[in-house]
Amino acid sequence: MGARRIVEKPAKTAGRRAGKKAATSGPRVVMPAWLGRRLLGGLLLVGGAGTVLGLGIWHLAQPDTLPIQRVQVEGEFRHLVRQDVYAAIGEPASGGFFNVDVGAVKAAAEAMPWVDSASVWRVWPDTLRVAITEQVPLARWEPMEAGTATGGGMVNMRGVLFHPGHGGDEGLPLFSGPRGSVESVAARYQSLSGVLAAAGLRVTALKLNQRRAWELWLDNGIRLKLGRGAGDERVQRFVDAYVPLLTQKAAQMKWVDLRYTNGFAVRWKQAPQDAVERTG
Questions:
Q1: How far apart are the first and last CA of the chain?
Q2: CATH for 137-279?
Q3: 181-215 pLDDT, tens per residue?
Q4: Does domain 70-134 match CATH 3.30.2320.80?
Q5: What angle do helix axes 182-196 and 232-241 make, rounded to 10 degrees?
Q6: Domains in the chain: boundaries
Q7: pLDDT tens digits, residue range 218-263?
Q8: Beta strands in 124-198 (DSSP E)
Q9: Is 238 helix (H, G, I), strand (E, B) or coil?
Q10: Which residues pair with 218 in a beta bridge?
């Protein structure tokens, strides 16, 4: 028998290990020490700046930092007393320039009965300025319902009811109406006043009753019955007749009924059998 040659095969395991080693091996990135120190320093700097900023804000918010030294109250007053305004806003106006609550100062001023509105702002470095708009009364108000929660009071030029307590109502007309009718009565008064002014007449009282019918009293004592939903044209009809025909008889007129479509009726104070004369 002849000799047989045996050829050894290369080991697969060794090759695979070598391939894996070659695949996983590569250059390692190493951060320079100086760069790490700079990044750490930057983080510490940002953190320190935030702390300083927070401490600064906290310090500015303290009442004793830039305290308010002067409070200026501005406005033209007929009914308000300036010292009363200072007393009302004194507590909320105390504090520092940055932490004073301007909203609380505004609310304290507007809580005063004769204040219609208030504006508040800071003036650098230590001043608080308060501008006051005083109520301008248009009329007195008498509620129709007994025991109404709002009670009597005054109506301002915008038709808003306010309660000043006392004083300031000399010579004002008297309004009366159901709950929630203040604005409507005020608007009707201003409209009627413009029409009657052409005849030199002035409204001293205006009433809206529960049936939504209007009545008014003039400064010469005449009472006008307007009815429900009566437009200004009926009052204009009365004015057109009053100036040429009725001026001299005004003292004898008790009331005028304007609820007619094409005319009006007059009741005289002293006439035969208290007759009613219809004009139109």
A1: 159
A2: 3.40.50.11690
A3: 999 999 999 999 999 999 999 999 999 999 999 99
A4: no
A5: 30
A6: 70-134, 137-279
A7: 999 999 999 997 678 999 999 999 988 888 888 899 999 999 988 8
A8: 127-134, 137-143, 153-156, 161-162, 174-177
A9: helix
A10: 203
